[in-house]
UniProtKB/TrEMBL annotation, chain A:
Residues 4-180 form the Transketolase-like pyrimidine-binding domain. Its cofactor is thiamine diphosphate. This is 2-oxoisovalerate dehydrogenase E1 component beta subunit. The keyword RNA-binding does not apply.
Automatic annotation (TrEMBL), chain B:
It comes from the Bacteria. GO terms for molecular function: branched-chain 2-oxo acid dehydrogenase activity. The branched-chain alpha-keto dehydrogenase complex catalyzes the overall conversion of alpha-keto acids to acyl-CoA and CO(2). It contains multiple copies of three enzymatic components: branched-chain alpha-keto acid decarboxylase (E1), lipoamide acyltransferase (E2) and lipoamide dehydrogenase (E3). Residues 20-319 form the Dehydrogenase E1 component domain. Keywords: Oxidoreductase, Thiamine pyrophosphate. It comes from Alkalibacterium subtropicum. Its cofactor is thiamine diphosphate. This is 2-oxoisovalerate dehydrogenase subunit alpha. GO terms for biological process: branched-chain amino acid catabolic process. SUPFAM superfamilies: Thiamin diphosphate-binding fold (THDP-binding) (SSF52518). Belongs to the BCKDHA family. It catalyses: N(6)-[(R)-lipoyl]-L-lysyl-[protein] + 3-methyl-2-oxobutanoate + H(+) = N(6)-[(R)-S(8)-2-methylpropanoyldihydrolipoyl]-L-lysyl-[protein] + CO2. The keyword Nucleus does not apply.
From TrEMBL, chain C:
The lineage of its organism: Bacteria, Bacillati, Bacillota, Bacilli, Lactobacillales. This is Dihydrolipoamide acetyltransferase component of pyruvate dehydrogenase complex. Its cofactor is (R)-lipoate. Residues 100-133 have a biased composition (Basic and acidic residues). The keyword Cytoplasm does not apply.
Length: 328, 330, 465
């Protein structure tokens, strides 16, 4: 065990996989050389594994997508980094039309075992194009997996699982968690299941489902609420697509009161689908309307501080929504 | 003036084999149109008028190790690469044993794991960036395979085409980019598609050789490809070849080119039919007689009939397999 | 004169802490606005921090080379303006706001208002918005007509447990009846008007109601509270209790909705009798529960269900639902009532496991402590009618299941042997009722044949574990 930040955990996971399998390569804008990424996730990898296996690409996200797909078809495990999740949009055609369909459209003759890394999330004064949660753009594309860790321990195990996965995986990393979270992370080789949600706290009064920054808010709020006599079950979605319906529905049924939290816009987010699943599968266990707590439906997160704060789902907002549901 | 066939450096047998490929490409495509018209398949998009250049292109590669990322008019080069008429039929009929997509994609989206032909989608030119990954794989593994990818002159205006050529130039990838220029993007002519005189001029812009060839001239095309493939294999980097060809048919089975092409134009197309020009050259230069060509045609017809019958008898994909191979574990 | 504070500035995306590497001024120095005062270092950047004020450097508030959170006060400046001391934080020039967006409470006010607005729009609350201003005390008033809108979970549990919701006190907002309220409701208290009502305050209810939850009370105790009347002819009329009403409702539904068909076979269970006689004493000693015949029949049925999934099905509005799990309902009679608890995933149990599970469920039933979980999800019922001496019966199917098997009494009979003689054998009748919408006679016959063969396959050496 070693105390590690979320960022260090991702770095270590990638480093271990590159050492373990020489077919693992990583690339993107500023990823190679001595810089090692704008956040430093890949720092040192070029020196350790060579400039062939850890390298810079030109500023061309479509190319990053296609390059990864091509490497996948000839047996490599490519890790393509999109500098910000906002910047994967030019590559959406590659992600959806090629990566997610390669296995299906050839029935496994050709495959694209790729990890696309995408730093996402707001609260970093990133404005419209450095704050977004773009996972909903890729959500609901069978063939593609979307995962995101919400703790350093999961970050390492999940990036390793993503790299080993034979499917294309989009790995969302929350920028604010990079240095905010620190915990003991095993230094040995372990993976976190790629397709499972995780009950991170047990309780029988309300169920809170989320991922990323807001999940950490929910965990803190749950402790406050506990002192008020209510116990919250908190579930980390982890596998954003395909969703781990079994775990989510079970947790929803357990308390019958469900709060879905996301820092994305309210409408059309991943939570909208989770809400539909719970409504379908758990109606007769529901004791309140399913609640969603999310950002407003403005196009992304504006830069100016009052606007950014207005958009963000804060710990206070999560606590308030949890308390209201507990008292309902 | 077309280059003489003997300048190609190919043997007589190889030249006749090239002709068989060109003619097979034509006849098989004609069969696919027939099947579409009688409702046995639902779609066809053809490479009629491209075949001579396509065969010259494909013959410059080593099919055992080189990779090919084709586009939808490339049935004929796929045959040169090793796919069979039955393979093509299985795809057009949407059969489970279709090596391209097992009946999942529309006809003409060629692919074959067995022959290093990588599956492509319908959102044009995505194969250009995918090809960079395949070619980079050769550098990583220190292997000497060369990768070929093609697209049309309409699709060549996609952003990913420039992204791919730029990266290939930066990394000096063993990768040959081809633009098969038949002058029409469905109904849109060249003057509405691009302003430069030649698309091959884009090659030097990205730090690579750019050559325009007459796709109806077998030898000119073959020699150009032979040179760039050799260079790429030696590690001298990528090249762009713009191959000028003729589109003899409508864009696809769902299109009628008489709407946007004049009657005169359509009649003139025959003058630029690479097959007819190639046949004339073969006779003039003493490779084949008209009678021998008829014999070859009869043999190919037999082969195509057999392929059609065999493919039709193969099983369709099963409805319950709709969710098969969505993910690795299913 | 007033004192100003300069904080560690926001140094970029994802940076949460930084340290001071060098002070570029000394305490007591006179500085101008925008003069650099220190060099800050984070794991991403090194940058100069300029002053936002003109004045005297009063005091450094942090040590060199020590990481502090963004927003931590780092230096005190005394300015020459005449204003009062300001100790609230201000940002240095050029620096951005603290990265922690939750710091300034007033900012969240608008959002909270918006959430309130939003929450008020939600349908479930519209009902009660007019009482929104009620004090906490008034909320604990027992439910009134206004709170008769129930959640799906409350309605379902109330139906399953036969609860009259008018008798349940709500602990939720504005007296709403919550799922926990009905789960924890003492069914037996129904019909006793207010005598069993829980009169605890709102906040304490969840735990308090757990504490008052009781098992079924003794008949004698119960009778005194039941409303009893007499007809003119002297017949006694007793109002049926909730459980009896629920049983009645279910039986009527089963008997009227399901077209029943019946079959009976007899099976030779001599080997099972031998096996049990041989092992029962040791079993009781070892396992603590009595080894009865019943688990053998449940096991035989489960084995047959694996081969005949149609028997493990339900009719649902024109669809046949084949159940993935095999959950056998077993009938348990108490003095007053019939309960049908469920052995979940019955196929996971051995004979020994079944003995214990059946014993556990029977005990819970007798004590009135079955949870809703214990009675949900049954996919076929096996009924031990033999336990009260029956040799033949026509079971009513437990809706929405497709079949019920009545296991009758074992009787000694003479049966012919292969060599033309007779022997004494232990024979049992198995009576099967089927939902004829789903199952035909042929399928039922094959199923019963398999059950019979499964039973006859036991030997006196068979393993109980």
């Amino acid at each position: 065990m070693a105390m590690m930040t979320y960022l260090e955990a991702i770095h270590q996971g990638i480093e271990e996989e590159m050492a373990r399998d020489e077919n693992v390569v990583i690339f993107g804008e500023d990823v190679g050389g001595v810089k090692g990424g704008v956040f430093g996730v890949t720092k040192g990898l070029a020196e350790k594994f060579g400039d062939d296996r850890c390298f810079n690409t030109p500023l061309t996200e479509g190319l990053i997508g296609g390059l990864a797909v091509g490497l996948g078809t000839v047996g490599y495990r490519a890790i393509g980094e999109f500098q910000f999740a906002d910047y994967l949009l030019p590559a959406v055609n590659q992600l959806i039309s090629e990566a997610s369909r390669m296995r299906y459209r050839t029935q496994g003759d050709w495959t694209a075992p790729i990890t696309f890394r995408a730093p996402y999330g707001g609260g970093v004064r990133g404005g419209l194009y450095h704050s977004q949660s773009t996972e909903k753009v890729l959500f609901g594309q069978p063939g593609l997996r979307i995962v995101t860790p919400s703790s350093p321990r999961d970050a390492k195990g999940l990036i390793k699982a993503a790299i080993r996965c034979d499917d294309p995986v989009v790995f969302y990393e929350h920028k604010r968690l990079y240095r905010l979270l620190k915990e003991d992370v095993p230094e040995d080789d372990y993976i976190v299941p790629i397709d499972k949600a995780n009950v991170v706290r047990e309780g029988d009064d309300i169920t809170v489902i989320g991922y990323g920054m807001v999940l950490n808010h929910a965990l803190k709020a749950a402790e406050t609420l506990s002192k008020e006599g209510y116990e919250a079950e908190v579930v980390d979605v982890r596998s954003i697509y395909p969703l781990d319906k079994e775990t989510l529905v079970k947790a929803a049924k357990k308390t019958g009161k469900v709060l879905l939290v996301t820092e994305d816009n309210l409408e059309g987010s991943v939570m909208s689908e989770i809400s539909a699943i719970i409504a379908e599968e758990a109606l007769f266990d529901l004791d309140s309307p399913i609640r969603r707590l999310a950002g407003p439906d403005s196009p992304s997160m504006p830069y100016a501080l009052p606007l950014e704060r207005e958009f963000l789902v804060s710990e206070e907002k999560v606590l308030k929504a949890m308390r209201e549901l507990a008292e309902f | 003036m077309m280059k003489k066939l003997k300048e190609s450096g190919l043997s007589k047998e190889e030249i006749i084999q090239a002709y068989r490929h060109v003619l097979m490409g034509r006849r098989l495509d004609e069969r696919l149109w027939q099947l579409t018209r009688i409702g046995k398949t639902s779609f066809n998009i053809s490479g009629q008028g491209h075949e001579v250049g396509q065969v010259a292109m494909a013959m410059a590669f080593e099919h055992e190790k080189d990779y090919f990322l084709p586009y939808y008019r490339d049935m004929t080069p796929c045959l040169v690469w090793g796919m069979t008429p039955k393979d093509i039929m299985l795809g057009s009929l949407g059969k489970e044993d279709d090596p391209s997509s097992h009946g999942r994609q529309m006809p003409n989206h060629y692919g074959s794991k067995e022959h290093n032909i990588i599956s492509h989608s319908s959102t044009v030119s995505t194969q250009y960036t995918v090809a960079t990954g395949v070619a980079y794989g050769a550098q990583l593994a220190k292997k000497d395979y060369v990768t070929l990818t093609t697209t049309g002159e309409g699709s060549a205006n996609q952003g990913e085409v420039q992204e791919a050529m730029n990266f290939a130039g930066v990394k000096k990838l063993p990768l040959i980019f081809v633009i098969e220029n038949n002058g029409y993007a469905i109904s849109v002519g060249r003057d509405e598609q691009y302003a430069s005189e030649k698309l091959s001029d884009r090659g030097p812009a990205f730090g690579m050789t750019g050559i325009q060839v007459n796709g109806n001239d077998f030898v000119e095309s073959y020699l150009a490809f032979k040179k760039v493939v050799e260079d790429a294999r030696k590690g001298f980097g990528p090249a762009l070849i713009e191959m000028m060809v003729t589109r003899l048919t409508s864009h696809s089975a769902d299109d009628d080119h008489s709407v946007y092409r004049s009657k005169e134009d359509i009649e003139n197309l025959k003058k630029n039919d690479g097959l007819l020009l190639f046949e004339k050259q073969l006779i003039d230069e003493g490779y084949l007689t008209r009678e021998q060509m008829k014999e070859i045609d009869a043999e190919l017809k037999k082969e195509i009939n057999q392929a059609t019958d065999e493919a039709e008898a193969m099983p369709d994909p099963k409805a319950e397999d709709i969710l098969k191979a969505v993910y690795a574990d299913k | 004169m007033s004192t100003k504070i300069i904080e560690m500035p926001h140094l970029g995306e994802s940076v949460t802490e930084a340290s001071i590497a060098v002070w570029l001024v000394s305490e007591g120095d006179k500085i101008e606005k925008y003069d650099p005062i220190a060099e800050a270092v984070s794991d991403k950047v090194t940058t100069e921090i300029p002053s936002n004020y003109s004045g005297i450097v009063k005091e450094f508030l942090i040590e060199l080379d020590t990481d502090v959170e963004i927003g931590t006060p780092i230096v005190k400046i005394e300015t020459e303006d005449a204003g009062a001391d300001e100790v609230e934080s201000e940002q240095p020039v050029g620096a951005e706001a603290p990265s922690d967006p939750e710091k300034k409470e007033e900012m969240t006010e608008h959002i909270n208002e918006e959430i309130d607005k939003e929450a008020d729009k939600r349908p479930m609350e519209r009902e009660t918005t007019e009482t929104k201003q009620e004090s906490a005390a008034s909320r604990s008033v027992p439910s009134t007509d206004k709170n008769t809108r129930y959640s799906p979970a409350v309605v379902r549990i109330a139906q399953e447990r036969g609860i009259d919701l008018n008798q349940v006190e709500g602990s939720g907002k504005h007296g709403r009846i919550t799922r926990k309220d009905v789960q924890n409701f003492d069914v037996d208290s129904q019909g006793k008007q207010n005598t069993a009502r829980q009169t605890v305050s709102n906040g304490d209810l969840p735990k308090a109601s757990l504490a008052v939850q009781k098992g079924l009370k003794k008949k004698a105790e119960q009778a005194s509270a039941e409303p009893v009347s007499y007809t003119s002819s002297g017949d006694e009329v007793v109002q049926a209790d909730g459980i009896r009403k629920a049983i009645a409702k279910k039986m009527v539904q089963s008997a009227t909705e399901i077209p029943h068909a019946w079959l009976m076979v007899e099976a030779d269970v001599s080997n099972i009798v031998k096996l049990r006689n041989k092992t029962k004493e040791q079993f009781k000693k070892q396992e603590g529960v009595t080894l009865s015949y019943f688990p053998f029949f449940v096991k035989a049925v489960v084995q047959a269900l694996k081969k005949h999934p149609i028997m493990n099905a339900s009719w649902d509005n024109g669809n046949i639902v084949y159940h993935k799990d095999i959950n056998i309902s077993v009938a348990v009679a108490t003095d007053e009532h019939l309960f049908v608890p469920v052995i979940h995933n019955t196929d996971n149990y051995s004979i020994s496991g079944l003995s214990k599970e059946i014993s556990r469920l029977a005990t819970l039933a007798r004590d009135g402590k079955l949870s809703s979980q214990d009675i949900q999800g049954g996919t076929m019922t096996v009924n031990n009618t033999g336990s009260f001496g029956s040799v033949q019966s026509m079971g009513i199917i437990n809706h929405p299941q497709a079949a019920i098997l009545q296991v009758e009494s074992i009787t000694k009979r003479f049966v012919p042997t292969e060599d033309g003689g007779f022997k004494a054998a232990d024979i049992i009748n198995l009576c099967l009722s089927i939902d004829h919408r789903i199952i035909d006679g042929l399928q039922a016959g094959r199923f019963l044949k398999d059950v019979k063969e499964n039973l006859q396959r036991f030997t006196d050496e068979s393993d109980l574990y």
